[in-house]
Amino acid sequence: MTETWRLLQTGSNTAFTNMAIDRAILEAHHHQLVPPTIRFYRWQPPAISIGYFQSLTEEVDLQACQRHGVDVVRRITGGGAVYHDTELTYSIVISENHPAISQNIIQSYERICHALIRGFQHLSIQSTFAPINDILVDGKKISGNAQTRKQGIVLQHGTILLDVDVDTMFAILKVPNEKLKDKLITDARQRVTSLRALLEREVSFDETASAMRQGFQEEFDVTLLPGDLTPAEHTYAKRYEQELFSQPAWNNRR
Hints:
α1 (15-30) crosses α9. Helix content is 41%, strand content 28%. The chain has 10 helices and 11 strands. It is globular, with a radius of gyration of 18 Å. The chain has a single domain (3-251), classed as Bira Bifunctional Protein, Domain 2 (BirA Bifunctional Protein, domain 2, 2-Layer Sandwich).
């Protein structure tokens, strides 16, 4: 019998709310209150998320973020600074003891990323997994992913670029050498792609979410049943947002 997982589509939220919801789902799954969960979401206003181990002041121009109306939040997952704007972000929360999840980190990245690769196929795009945690189309990055394991639970989240705004991204990320900035922007345009660039049309969030839902169902042989955050998850999320993700002590900790 096909296993049933939960699908959440939580719409647009601030960076602080989005990171709190992912953390809340992890907490709820740890307490066995909810099944394995896939979530699709977006960011409003646009945001920079930095990896758990990164230095905020070294990575991000905070004054530029204020000028551009961009939130800044520290993730609980590792990896680099990510600019979130015109994209679909997904998260998966699942026990690390689930048979679908390898104890090997790279293998688990690859398995989850293959769900996205199947999703891209539904959009007529052929893509490949690039270890440790990227998905490429013709050598260009269309998805970056990050993972953490806490309390026996895997949280992986990542981006699927609907469009890309390299200029704004480099306006708010710090560049080690300003003289190199133009070259870095040119390189980024050559190394990063988006659904819009590949399909030469506007690709909606909903169309992308539908394709990715199919991809996850096929890769993991599950049924994704649309659901909502539980009251417990709302409580957890509110607490994590107030006590962690919105706090300067958390975001500035490195």
